[in-house]
Amino acid sequence: MNTTYKRFSTSSYSLLLFCLLSLFSACKKEYEDFPYADIVSFTVKDANGEPIKAVIDEKNLTIYWPSNQAVPDNIVPIIVVSERAKISPSSGQTVAFKETTRFVVTAQNGTTKEYAIKKVVNQPLLKVDITGGVSVYNTKNFAIKGRNIIISGDNVIADKNQTKVYLINTANNNEKELTIGTLSPIAINVTLDTTTPDGIYKLKVVSGQRTVVIERTFGITAGSPFISAIEMAAIKTTLKPGEEFTLNGVNRIELINKFSIRNVANKQFYDLTVKEAKTDQLTLNVPESLPIGQYDLFIYNYPAGEYYAAGIGSDYFDDIITIIK
Questions:
Q1: Overall pTM surpassing 0.70 (yes/no)
Q2: Which stretch is the leader sequence (predicted)?
């Protein structure tokens, strides 16, 4: 059997080589320039080091943060993206935990896709109201300086780092943080500062990511005039007719308009003369006609105010007062 061999011409070799190179080039372009620019997974750690995986859609990275934990200012996400894609900021980089934070994924072929953080705290609605410490006089709500206000409700975070109470002055919207005493999931006890200016106020409660402004307004006052036994202890135990002395007090003592003392022997009350009244001071005069002897009890009168009716206060002297000639 005779075999016939045919030679390829130079042009035939060139054509074959061109075809192979073209095929190789087409395959290389098709399989290397990936168009994918997706975030496949996005994971952060909570305050206890437990992983939280974001819910990913076409534009958002929704992170459901535990309600019993403080929400951090920053997070360090571990991110997986499409094959051969790049992301900025990169995986493992610290970023602000804000909804303005954006991530841009760039595919191998230059296609880009942007994702935004969406922060959701799994915290139930905060429900609170004032249940104690605010009284009513002549249809006006009021609270007393130095005393407590009780706020009750539901879903309060019992952590003073996460729960705060603010006093809002309705005249200028200035806010002042109040000191929290006791705190539980259903109640907050706060103290009004004795230096708080008189005015009309309301309360704002912040617990975790929830904020409630209690719309019930109330006045803040020092209350009705009052003289304590400690303040009375500052006077001399021996006085003479015609002698003057000054009482110092912080509970509107200057509003007192009548002051009397009781004689131990005859149980009669005798008025002292109010000589001068100015802020936190009351100056009294012992009348020339006051019988000499011992006096054991004092009583005083004050007029009505915006948040209280006219009234009387009384107490025993710590030490009996003696009037001598």
A1: no
A2: 1-28
